[in-house]
Write a structure and sequence with these properties.
Elements lengths: L8 E5 L4 H12 L3 E6 L2 H13 L3 E6 L5 H15 L4 E4 L14 H29 L2 E6 L13 H21 L3 E8 L13 H10 L7 H11 L9 E4 L7
Parallel strand pairs: 1-2, 1-4, 2-3, 4-5, 5-6, 6-7
Helix pairs in contact: 1-7, 3-4, 4-5
Length: 247
């Protein structure tokens, strides 16, 4: 177990699969009290039971990150159960790849609602708690597509992930001192993210691209590294990708 992680209360959105699930399992093994949040309550409860069976502490909470009140209720439930929140991991995301000329505006709206507003709602829910406590740590999941535009096809997705980086950096500047802010920017990681494209030709390209994906646990370890640092050390950005990925 890590002394820098043990007994910390960590809230994770998008925790029913992929990076969120892997992070919940990894941090629970390190002694964290994990709060798993997503829409699929049956899946969350199954993961929570497995964590508890292994000796960890965990709870599940159903949310839709596009609903601000859901995020507020999530943080309130975490505080009610565990007494505080140390880390808020805004992980839920959607990657719907298609050329802009396809005008899949509904998918654009959905990505903005989940990838940008979902992160902002998580910040809005946890920040007052962090400020009252005098400590806290935001970990926001961006992407290598938030560093370089993934084009053709990923221009809008990249836009949402650039936004996450910009919001995170501004947040760090505004609330830094006692509150830490980390942005994680993964490349191809094995998760359900690759299934988000409704445009068949783009989906085929994404499937091929993701054949080089690294396990979700790779990101979980990066997140653990950021959390376990001493309180006066703020790991602001971590970029990780498969060694074979040139983008």
């Amino acid at each position: 177990m890590s002394q820098g992680i043990q007994n910390k209360v960590v809230v994770i959105t998008g925790a029913s699969s992929g990076l969120g699930e892997a992070t919940a399992r990894h941090l629970a093994k390190q002694g964290a009290k994990v709060v798993l949040a997503a829409r699929r309550m049956d899946r969350l409860e199954a993961i929570v039971q497995e964590i508890k069976a292994a000796g960890g502490q965990a709870m599940a909470h159903a949310i839709d990150v596009t609903q601000r009140e859901d995020l507020s209720a999530l943080v309130e439930a975490a505080v009610a159960t565990f007494g505080q929140v140390d880390v808020m991991i805004n992980n839920a995301g959607l990657m719907a790849i298609s050329p802009i000329s396809e005008l899949r505006v509904d998918e654009w709206d959905r990505m903005i609602d989940i990838n940008v507003k979902g992160v902002l709602y998580g910040i809005a829910a946890a920040l007052p708690v962090f400020e009252t406590q005098g400590f806290g740590h935001f970990i926001n999941i961006s992407s290598v597509a938030g560093i370089k535009v993934f084009s053709p096809g990923g221009s809008v997705y990249s836009g949402t992930k650039y936004a996450v980086r910009a919001i995170s950096d501004g947040l760090r500047h505004e609330v830094g001192g006692k509150i830490r802010t980390t942005t994680i920017e993964p490349g191809a990681v094995d998760s359900e993210l690759k299934f988000g494209s409704g445009h068949a030709p783009s989906a085929a390209v994404v499937t091929e691209f993701y054949k080089q994906a690294i396990p979700a646990e790779s990101v979980a370890r990066a997140i653990a590294y950021a959390i376990e640092q001493p309180a006066d050390v703020d790991i602001n950005e971590i970029v990780l990708r498969p060694t074979s990925q040139d983008f």
